[in-house]
Amino acid sequence: MNEKQIILEAMKKAGEPLNAGKVAELTGLDRKAVDKAFAEMKKEGSIVSPVKCKWEPAEK
Predict the structure, then answer these.
(1) In sequence order, which residues have a C-beta less than 8 Å from that of residue 5 and are 6 or more positions away?
(2) What CA–CA distance (Å, rounded) separates 33 from 24?
(3) pLDDT tens string 8-36
(4) Helix residue ranges per DSSP H, 1-60
(5) The CATH number of the domain covering residues in 3-57
(6) 19 close to 53: Cβ distance less than 8 angstroms
(7) pLDDT (0 to 100) of residue 1
(8) Is the pLDDT of residue 41 over 70?
(9) Phi, psi for residue 54 in degrees, rounded to 5
(10) Burial class (CB in 10 A: 0-12, 13-18, 19+), 8
(11) Are the C-beta atoms of residues 1 and 38 closer than 8 Å to each other?
């Protein structure tokens, strides 16, 4: 599984919008890696922000 898939799985399991710090904590990934993946995922449209600074999968 690549980082994006790991992040999406963690977000789905959490069941609520998460910030990058929480995603890093849940996945064990480096915060910088999460920030980079978030930037790519935002461009792709695979994550959306329902609340400022928190993200969730575009499709649940």
Answers:
(1) none
(2) 8
(3) 999 999 999 999 999 999 999 999 999 99
(4) 3-14, 20-27, 31-44
(5) 1.10.10.10
(6) yes
(7) 80
(8) yes
(9) -125, 145
(10) buried
(11) no
Residues in Cβ contact with 42 at an 8 Å cutoff, skipping those fewer than 6 apart = 55
Spatial distance between the Cα atoms of 21 and 35, rounded to a whole number of angstroms: 9
> Mean pLDDT throughout 45-60?
92
Residue with tokens 């609340």: 51
Distances (CA, A) of 35 to 40, 46: 9, 14
Distances, alpha carbon 45 to alpha carbons 25, 27, 28, 30, 38, in Å? 23, 21, 23, 22, 10
CB count within 10 Å of CB 15 equals: 9
